[in-house]
Amino acid sequence: MKKLPLTFENMLPINKALSNPTRVKILNLLSEKPHNVNELSEKLNLPFSTTASHVNKLEKVDLIVTELVPGRGTQKVSAINYDRIIIDLFNMEEQTNEHELTIEMNIGDYLDCHVHPNCGLVGEQEYIGIQDDPRSFYETDRKNAQLLFFRDGYVEYRFPNRIPYGYTVKEISFSAEVCSEAPNYKLDWPSDITTWINHTETATWTSPGDFGGERGSLTPDWWRTNLTQFGLLKQWKINEDGCFIDNEKASDVTIGDLHLSDHPYVAFKLGIKEDAENKGGMNLFGPKFGNYEQGIVMNIKYEAKS
Questions:
Q1: DSSP 8-class letter at 186
Q2: pTM score of the predicted model
Q3: Is 287 helix (H, G, I), strand (E, B) or coil?
Q4: Which of 124, 296, 290, 127 is nearest to 218 (CA)?
Q5: Cα separation of 236 and 245, whole Å?
Q6: 165 to each of 261, 274, 305, how far by Cα in Å?
Q7: Exposed, middle or buried, 91 (CB in 10 Å: 0-12/13-18/19+)?
Q8: Which residue ranges form the domains of the chain, and what is each CATH number?
Q9: DSSP H/E element including 169
Q10: pLDDT tens, residue by residue, 142-166
Q11: To the nearest 10°, the Cα dihedral for 138, 143, 144, 148?
Q12: How many CB atoms lie within 10 A of CB 85?
């Protein structure tokens, strides 16, 4: 899908072009297939000259493209140039020294794990392997998991390290939909879920419960509502000021403590520590389960070394 980013420089003329309802109708028609001006004029019930003027204004801001094609003689045919328009409400000049990369990983693409029952992997249409059997976590089909759960243990993911040489990391963050793991579900079921980045313990978050009884917006119909349905979307962020969970400081671990440049990968581990006060397990959701259409997302902001 071709996207048109709007910045402060091109926003005004494009918005002016889109402010006319007839021109929006033209874009709708062209999104179905290319048309010449005569065809557009007939469908809009407008004079040829008026239609041509609207087409010309859309051409000037690059929303459509018009080409000469052979037909009954040579005719001009217009086609839509973009499928989506995205507005960037920030000044690009202020971002020139900062770079950013985002990588999403399926929840079944963990490289290492150690789990105890209750545990299991769930795909979009059925269980993967056998419920409450830790051996199922090594099934080759685990990459298709949309929900994984365990009462005790951990899963570890390794993201590719794509930080360019000669650059330094300012901030790294991970986000995932997660909650506690209780038999069936239990809203009041605290669990201390700890994260590690590059084998360094970063922070512990206490999940308040295991959420069910009301179907998650993405949870498939075959999954019973008396089981876990959705989690909470959490973000773990580390920069030079410390580690933050949902923008609240959670520990004094800083970006320098992670030694990102010393590893060929970026490891992210979630689990329950052996000495956790609340050992309430963990559910981890993929893009087709729960309320958020994502797996585990890593975002890194970096800049050129001064």
A1: B
A2: 0.69
A3: coil
A4: 290
A5: 5
A6: 9, 38, 10
A7: exposed
A8: 3-87 (1.10.10.10), 97-304 (2.60.120.260)
A9: strand 167-179
A10: 999 999 999 999 999 999 999 998 8
A11: 60
A12: 14
Q: For residue 89, how many other CB atoms are within 10 A of its CB?
A: 8
∠ CA 197-198-203, rounded to 5°: 25
Which residue matches tokens 């507005």?
A: 87
Residue in the block written with tokens 């980045």: 197
For 210-247, give one letter per residue: b (16+ CB within 10 A) or e. bbbeeebebbbeebeeebbbbbbbbebbbbeebbbbee
Question: Do the Cβ atoms of 137 and 130 come closer than 8 Å?
Answer: no
Q: Look up residue 24 and give its two tokens.
A: 């929006």
What would the two tokens of residue 197 be?
């980045």
CA distance linking residue 239 with residue 173, whole number of Å = 9
Both structure tokens of 10: 């091109």
Instruction: Look at residues 235, 218, 227, 229 and name the one whose alpha carbon lies nearest to residue 270.
Output: 235
The encoded tokens of residue 57 equal 């204004």
Q: Alpha helix locations (H) across the chain?
A: 11-18, 21-32, 37-44, 48-60
Per-residue pLDDT of 281-301, as tens digits, reads 999 999 999 999 999 999 999
- Which residues make Cβ contacts (< 8 Å) with residue 251, sequence separation at least 6? 202, 203, 242, 243
What is the C-alpha separation between 108 and 91, in angstroms, rounded? Answer: 38
